[in-house]
Amino acid sequence: MTIENIRLSEKGKQQLLQLKKRTGIENWNTLCRWAFCTSLAEPSVPPYEDIPSDSSVEMTWKVFGGKFSDLYYALLIERSEADGIDDPMLCLKLHLNRGISFILNDSNITPLISDYS
Q: Where are the domains of the chain?
């Protein structure tokens, strides 16, 4: 099984918009990779949520993963098995949403470029 497209929830989109403003990072895929890896770094299984794919933010797996898409997929499959989640897409959604929340609530996240004018 492969993942072709990823569509975020409206809640995730709104949280990423806040992160875009806070960090200056413009690309959805960059923020999503960051969120995914942040969640993977947490050893616990993310709590189950029914996460709708109801926003206008959608990207292909290749856009999400960039030149390391095969590596991200291998990490997803390994973590899906470790977490006992049979559906890799569900595992991805759970980790993306948890990671977005972790980053959004991290007070150490600051802009990449400061405006000194």
A: 15-104
